[in-house]
């Protein structure tokens, strides 16, 4: 089928998401390699990637599983990291209100940062009359989201296959921390995000190395959870203080 026969929203979605797909390839590969390195079987690693489908929390879960953390801690960490999805859902829900239940279910499963960002930008594009129709909104979002899902899963499976063939002596434990650094640096673009990164990272590291109750680090590998919560709170506080300062200046 020629591209000209594809719906315009499909062509637009593919054009918009293509640069992002290139960026998630290395992260998908590393997630697969890291899952095998953490001790998961190839089948378990594929299942984790398909069921969770969330880059940052998926890598955090793999890291904790590799350190034999309690499953409740692994689950709690994923929930804390993915709390932002609640805000995404609340923001994008009005555009999906008229969707049938099955489409809402599929859309919620495929919701990730990039899909949300592109969809919201498309739906609120200036100079587009009343905006895209219900059908156009659904086509655009699902094309973007399914493209992201497909590339992530393929790359994860390739990473799993590569990881299964890498000798243990190679020691690929460094892969996950490097990926988190690669995700962190571009995200630090303002004071709240800087505060979240510094406080969250500091608390997470302290939670792993500071002597607690006769041992080293927080029990049950809770350092990452504590860091995530502290980082979120720090970002919220700094953002609120900034808003207060702006309001005060405006009142003068």
Automatic annotation (TrEMBL):
<feature type="transmembrane region" description="Helical">
    <location>
        <begin position="139"/>
        <end position="164"/>
    </location>
</feature>
<dbReference type="InterPro" id="IPR011606">
    <property type="entry name" value="Brnchd-chn_aa_trnsp_permease"/>
</dbReference>
<keyword id="KW-0472">Membrane</keyword>
<keyword id="KW-1133">Transmembrane helix</keyword>
<dbReference type="Pfam" id="PF03591">
    <property type="entry name" value="AzlC"/>
</dbReference>
<feature type="transmembrane region" description="Helical">
    <location>
        <begin position="170"/>
        <end position="187"/>
    </location>
</feature>
<feature type="transmembrane region" description="Helical">
    <location>
        <begin position="71"/>
        <end position="96"/>
    </location>
</feature>
<feature type="transmembrane region" description="Helical">
    <location>
        <begin position="220"/>
        <end position="242"/>
    </location>
</feature>
<dbReference type="GO" id="GO:1903785">
    <property type="term" value="P:L-valine transmembrane transport"/>
</dbReference>
<keyword id="KW-0812">Transmembrane</keyword>
<feature type="transmembrane region" description="Helical">
    <location>
        <begin position="194"/>
        <end position="214"/>
    </location>
</feature>
<keyword id="KW-0813">Transport</keyword>
<dbReference type="GO" id="GO:0005886">
    <property type="term" value="C:plasma membrane"/>
</dbReference>
<protein>
    <submittedName>
        <fullName>4-azaleucine resistance probable transporter AzlC</fullName>
    </submittedName>
</protein>
<comment type="similarity">
    <text>Belongs to the AzlC family.</text>
</comment>
<feature type="transmembrane region" description="Helical">
    <location>
        <begin position="20"/>
        <end position="38"/>
    </location>
</feature>
<keyword id="KW-1003">Cell membrane</keyword>
């Amino acid at each position: 089928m020629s591209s000209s026969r594809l719906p315009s929203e499909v062509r637009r979605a593919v054009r918009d998401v293509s640069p992002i797909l290139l960026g998630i390839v290395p992260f998908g590969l590393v997630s697969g390699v890291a899952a095998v390195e953490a001790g998961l079987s190839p089948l378990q690693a594929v299942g984790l990637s398909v069921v969770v489908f969330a880059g940052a929390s998926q890598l955090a879960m793999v890291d904790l599983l590799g350190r034999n953390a309690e499953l409740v801690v692994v689950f709690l960490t994923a929930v804390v990291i993915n709390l932002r999805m609640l805000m995404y859902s609340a923001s994008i829900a009005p555009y999906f209100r008229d969707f049938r239940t099955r489409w809402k279910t599929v859309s919620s499963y495929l919701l990730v940062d990039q899909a949300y960002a592109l969809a919201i930008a498309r739906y609120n594009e200036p100079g587009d009359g009343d905006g895209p129709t219900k059908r156009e909104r659904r086509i655009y979002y699902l094309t973007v989201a399914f493209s992201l899902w497909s590339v992530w899963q393929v790359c994860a499976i390739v990473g799993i296959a590569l990881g299964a063939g890498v000798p243990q002596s190679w020691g690929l434990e460094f892969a996950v921390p490097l990926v988190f650094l690669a995700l962190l640096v571009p995200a630090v673009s303002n004071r709240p995000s800087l505060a979240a990164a510094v406080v969250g990272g500091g608390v997470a590291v302290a939670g792993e190395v500071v002597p607690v109750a006769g041992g080293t680090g927080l029990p049950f590998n809770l350092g990452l959870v504590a860091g995530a919560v502290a980082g979120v709170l720090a970002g919220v506080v700094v953002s609120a203080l900034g808003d207060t300062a702006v309001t005060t200046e405006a009142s003068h």
